[in-house]
From TrEMBL:
Bilayer topology annotation: Multi-pass membrane protein
Organism of provenance: Buchnera aphidicola
One term of GO molecular function: protoheme IX farnesyltransferase activity
Gene: cyoE
Protein name: Protoheme IX farnesyltransferase
KW Transferase (keyword) present: yes
């Protein structure tokens, strides 16, 4: 029973978001690290994210039943009662909001609620209707970095907004690669995703453009004086390789050959990027 509840919170998504939270927090608090605040931020935000995943599972039962990669999910196979899942989602979400509000700050709590609303009530429903659902979904996926950043200094400033934009570009490339890999699944579920409506080739070109935007926006952390040239050097090496693979993907007729590589590279890049901003190179 416990493993089923663990499955519906989507641990891999939570872990991925924790990386953004840690990066944002350490980048913001490099001069005054507070371990209690750090743990409270990760715990509270993770619970809210887990809650959003639970409700996403709850809402997407019909869609999940039509896709090969999701047809064995807990709610599709009726391994848990929907009402139990609904209550579970409310409890962990409420607990997460409470932790952020009382142990971190109101701003981080408010951002977590915004991320929850965008993911559960806007993105989850919009993906059934619009090719731009991925773009809207990227907003909620970028908010964990803001939660981490604002948890440490309780303010939204220009660098905080820049981080938000950087991760939107990263997520668009990341999610578009996923949409190509699982395009047949999405067709079976009748979801109007970008590669289905606009074509795979155009999607691959957009991935290329988004990676360029990610490179330019992340480089601004150096050019605006927030980070040094050591960060810029290491950041560009891996990003240009990612861009090169994306270029090869446009030329390749086999849509899956390089799309998977772009996807896995995107994971390496987001981890590496957050490590770099956590170290906070100033030279």
């Amino acid at each position: 029973m416990l493993k089923y509840y663990l499955e519906i919170i989507k641990p891999r998504i939570i872990f991925g978001n924790i990386i953004l939270i840690i990066g944002g927090f350490l980048f913001s608090s490099h001069l005054s690290f507070n371990i209690f605040l750090f743990i409270s931020t990760i715990l509270g935000a993770s619970l809210v994210i887990a809650s959003s995943c639970v409700f996403n599972n709850f809402i997407d039962i019909e869609i999940d039943s039509k896709m090969h990669r999701t047809k064995n999910r807990v709610l599709v196979k009726k391994l848990l009662q929907p009402i139990s899942v609904f209550i579970f989602g409310l409890i962990i979400g409420g607990l997460g909001v409470f932790i952020l509000g009382f142990l971190v700050n109101a701003l981080s709590m408010f951002l977590s609620i915004i991320g929850f609303v965008i993911y559960v009530f806007i993105y989850t429903f919009l993906k059934r209707k619009s090719i731009y659902s991925t773009f809207i979904g990227s907003f909620s996926g970028s908010i964990p970095s803001l939660i981490g950043y604002t948890a440490a200094n309780n303010t939204i400033n220009s660098v905080c907004i820049l981080l938000f934009i950087i991760f939107i570009f990263w997520q668009m490339a990341h999610f578009y690669a996923i949409s190509i890999i699982y395009i047949e699944d999405y067709k079976n579920a009748n979801l109007p995703l970008f590669p289905i409506v606009k074509g795979v080739l155009k999607t691959k070109k957009h991935i290329f453009y988004y990676i360029i935007c990610f490179i330019l926006s992340s480089s601004m952390l150096t050019f605006l004086g927030y980070l040094g040239y050591i960060f810029l050097f290491f950041n560009l090496i891996l990003n240009f390789y990612w861009l090169y693979i994306s270029y090869l993907n446009i030329q390749e007729k086999n849509h899956f050959k390089f799309s998977r590589k772009i996807f896995y590279l995107s994971i390496i890049i987001v981890v590496f990027f957050n490590i770099l901003i956590s170290i906070h190179f100033k030279f």
